[in-house]
Amino acid sequence: MERSKLQKLLAVARGDEPADLLLINGKIVNTLSYEIIEGSVALFNGYIVGVGDYEARAQVDLHGAYLSPALIDGHIHIESSLLAPPEFARTVVPWGTGAVVCDPHEIANVCGTRGIQYMLDASERLPLDVYVMLPSCVPATHMETAGADLTPDDLRPFLSHPRVLGVAEVMNFPGVVLGIDPVLDKVDLAAGRPVDGHAPGVRGKWLNAYSAAGIQTDHESTELEEAREKLRNGIKVFIREGSTARNLEALLPLVTPENCHRFSFVSDDRHADELQAIGHMNATVRKAVKLGLDPVIALAMASTHTAEHYGLHDTGAIAPGRRANLVLFEDLKEFKPLQVWRDGVVAVENGKLIASIEDYSTAGVTDTVRIGALNEQSFAVAATGDKVNIIEVIPDQIVTRRVEAALPQEAGCWIADTARDIAKMVVIERHGRNGNIGRGFVKGLGLTKGALASTVAHDSHNLICAGTNDRDMLCAANALKASGGGWVVVAGGKILAQVALPVAGLMSNDSASSVIAQISRLHQAARQIGCPLDAPFMALSFLALPVIPSLKLTDHGLVDVDKFMEIELGIS
Amino acid sequence: MERSKLQKLLAVARGDEPADLLLINGKIVNTLSYEIIEGSVALFNGYIVGVGDYEARAQVDLHGAYLSPALIDGHIHIESSLLAPPEFARTVVPWGTGAVVCDPHEIANVCGTRGIQYMLDASERLPLDVYVMLPSCVPATHMETAGADLTPDDLRPFLSHPRVLGVAEVMNFPGVVLGIDPVLDKVDLAAGRPVDGHAPGVRGKWLNAYSAAGIQTDHESTELEEAREKLRNGIKVFIREGSTARNLEALLPLVTPENCHRFSFVSDDRHADELQAIGHMNATVRKAVKLGLDPVIALAMASTHTAEHYGLHDTGAIAPGRRANLVLFEDLKEFKPLQVWRDGVVAVENGKLIASIEDYSTAGVTDTVRIGALNEQSFAVAATGDKVNIIEVIPDQIVTRRVEAALPQEAGCWIADTARDIAKMVVIERHGRNGNIGRGFVKGLGLTKGALASTVAHDSHNLICAGTNDRDMLCAANALKASGGGWVVVAGGKILAQVALPVAGLMSNDSASSVIAQISRLHQAARQIGCPLDAPFMALSFLALPVIPSLKLTDHGLVDVDKFMEIELGIS
What we know:
The structure is a homodimer. Chain A contains 17 helices and 32 strands.
């Protein structure tokens, strides 16, 4: 804080000058002392002055509602909401979210440092603090082509940005555990700042090694005993409640009053529909309290603990000198926000956003589907060998199975076999770097006709397309090329439905409501072509992720994840 | 950690290479998960590898004893022990202390930056981590002459030292609350690093202002409600158990499992005799547990919480990648240390120090009693007015009372009046800066003859001398000049007893045992000249401290602390 501003704040705090605003008759949730205190909170110049009997130029009666620090999401990929940062803010601020610590890993895989810069710039003037952890794994593996290869030297300049906090989840945990230099270089980049972890299922000696390397958090625990080991090793447990991964119920029994300060809530990935209909961190707090957690501890896990971990000393609690980022809840059961203040200014009134949020130019992060001219031949798979390795989708899981089968042939090429629910699949490098096309087959998408395609395909976000015939696959790929990316369903050479995601091929320019409506139509179209999955594009987006077992397809071709190597499609 | 060292540690952690040492059959106090875990701890190259079933080149059977992180004192003035850093380490390491966060405020008031550098250098090779907070109040007030005036520019270079953590207790709390620029400059010096506080009795709006200025800790609470307000304001409560100020019993009821991580134990000032006979942080932990605190929480308050607060991520807990700074306690009642490890090496075996600790050169911080030639006339107090303002000592307190009395005269000068227990007192500027002598009278020291003198006189540490006659006072002052400082008792023109404190006039070069024996003889001598106080030199040392009410004497003369101004001795 500037000196003169601080001196004015001190004058108000000691009672020599009046405050701007006094919030009276509140039940103040003190997440430092873990108490609820009845009293008045004075605000001045965007800051909390203190709790006490202050003179103020105005006052607001809270009528006995609960005043909490604004909530903080300790780890989120905003891109997964499909919403650009301004629309994301419009969606989460009304739920009482005051800050998110985001890892722009997805957009960085497409746009490199431009993507990181865009996320910083697009979130500059929001009534939401968007803190950024620097993506540590771009590309995620050497078996795929991402839009950039980010080295520590590429990332280091961002460390001087006031909202960049450290290094994001180091997903290459084998690289850390095995002490691989380029991976440890990414950890070192933090130079004493926070380094987040990502160690799904890692326990025992490997976890000891991962911990010893200086990794400080993890949000991937799915089982209580796994989280317990991390807690014991000094890794803070970020309990994830996302749209797909929901770990609260499994992990909550580990939280005790003594150790609760080593836990935070995060969402990791949360989709637009859930963000709009159910809530954000307030929904996680609500669920935790329903599961039996003390509401003050729950709120602390969704604010103070996270702020303290990341060294955000000017927010995350109702205390003198902290920014007046506050949320007023009607009760500590439903956690329905009545009002939200950001830097002492009302951003949400009666649950409605009143802060003005402007869209931000997406120049520099659009036109990211850079693929050459395609034709039906681009999708042809020459038949070599007797059988092929096929990826089998397991419903509601991101892991797959490897199966083998002989396939029908046409003109010396293998083709889809709808009778056995086997579709063709391609991954087309879309970053304009090498034009790679990986080709394979997938079982279990249920397609009876047509094709699905997506430019959201973790983690390199190449164009992934599955279909029953080359004509529809070509149509789907070209549709995404034309729209600058997104999701599409095609049949009979026509687009049945599509969601345009022109921002890096990952995010929409539309409102959350519009995106939700588009997705609903898209899912309907997918069902029309036979796909029975609840979230077909979610399933598709993980079929190119070569860090999740067992068999995946990248622009390099098939990857046997268990062996962590590329393999041939045909089996002789 | 260097890369190659880390890679070796990772290899051991993941089980590919053997550990150096396996500590088996221990009850491991995990201050991160707040549990006691039975198991084995592997060490390698001075670090903790992890808990688990590791192969190791050697093993040690802990026979069911309790393995705890080595203890940390969150705030101490080492000078108050009268021991130079090496001897201080010899005294506290056997009690399981692994680190102290010290404020070299006393020596800095005498030697300025040389004093800070000495404390850093003299603690460089100890089996004890001595972290330093930069003294923020040298001099403490404008009403005295210290050995240096330390500005932020003087202190800033120290921030690059790996053991300098931030800015020490900002004692000038009115300066902070009132927003005085030079005081806020000291707070700003920290530039985001820790800033410790000192706010005795400060509550309500003034506390809100002190908190808003960014002060993060306080160890001065004496009452529970005072500490509660600080806790609520986000100021971490450092519970002090020193040799004079003991706040544990009063404050402990405030600690709950939820909020315990916002508490640490500190000693502030602890004397050699107590450090040797009773213990250090282990004694505080013992007392806390006797008062009902859970022993794991007590140990966390004496280790992990403090390490986390100061960002000491490589120590303070038994977890992979942390330095193997450990203490083995026989039980969790008496907290008697059996063994202490420092960086994986045994420093204490069967309670006995085996680590070799060498003395460190005191060149540059000796010969600090720089006063000109004195004679009996130097002590004469010309009689002006009818009565004089007299400082009255209150037994066992550092506050004084102002009383007025007419005094006997001799040759136009006021003299001591032993019949009414009024001695003469002088404070002689001893830093060679201006030769000031402040003169006054003190009631309540009990002196019937002779004189006492000390170069320990908070906070400027000028030479303070009280006596019944000028001849003995001259003898006492000259004795300290000759010895380079310390404590002395004189009668009949002869030295009865003395403790040489040649290091800045504050610390001894002798062993703790010798210092304790010398003090015992000194106290005996003080009783011989009539002083009935338990700790006469402690009382004397606070009579020059112009930040504690009500009347004090500095080299400037009498200070009315309530009015925070210098006043005349004589009253007309």
